[in-house]
Amino acid sequence: MAHGTAYWLRLLYWFGFGYLAVCMALMVGRRGRVIGIDHIKELVDLSISNINKHHSDLFMDVRITMVTGDGRSGYRASAAYIAIHVGAAAPKLPDILVDQLAPGGWMIIPIGKVFSDRHFVQVDKDLNGNVEIEELFDVLFVPLTDRKYQLGHLN
């Protein structure tokens, strides 16, 4: 990531209180940028508040941008991304996120249906746009859902 500008898309689902966005922003350095997205506005607001407590400079430098939106669709406004980290399990690999990877980019994402085996998957896009997928290990993650489903299961 030392070469050029690094763009990260961090999808914040359920537990995204800003910590990982800060970690990624510190990793990519001053020339990098982290986009955090969640469909729950209150989680986005909490993340912003948490980051402002100790790392407000990351917002002033525009190294972190937090948005409310459907992370299942990614965030095309800032694509293509060198790296995408998805923090919730998708039932299958979302083509829309693979499309937002830059050539030479990679994504890590948990894949698997609700109440079934889930695998942490690494997706690599080579410089010609060819995609390789590798299952890394079994994981437990909350499902990648819409707002209505997520909030309905909290009650």
From TrEMBL:
Keywords, comma-separated and alphabetical: Cytoplasm, Membrane, Methyltransferase, S-adenosyl-L-methionine, Transferase, Transmembrane, Transmembrane helix
Identification of the protein by name: protein-L-isoaspartate(D-aspartate) O-methyltransferase
Ribosomal protein recorded as keyword: no
The organism's taxonomic lineage, starting at the top: Eukaryota, Metazoa, Ecdysozoa, Nematoda, Chromadorea
GO cellular component, one term: cytoplasm
GO molecular function: protein-L-isoaspartate (D-aspartate) O-methyltransferase activity
E.C. code: 2.1.1.77
Transmembrane segments: 12-29
Family: Belongs to the methyltransferase superfamily. L-isoaspartyl/D-aspartyl protein methyltransferase family.
Gene3D superfamilies listed in its UniProt record: Vaccinia Virus protein VP39
GO BP term, example: methylation
Signal sequence extent: none
UniProt cross-references to InterPro entries, sorted A to Z: PCMT, SAM-dependent_MTases_sf
Keyword Cytoplasm belongs to the record: yes
UniProt source species: Wuchereria bancrofti
Localization (cell): Cytoplasm
Main location: cytoplasm
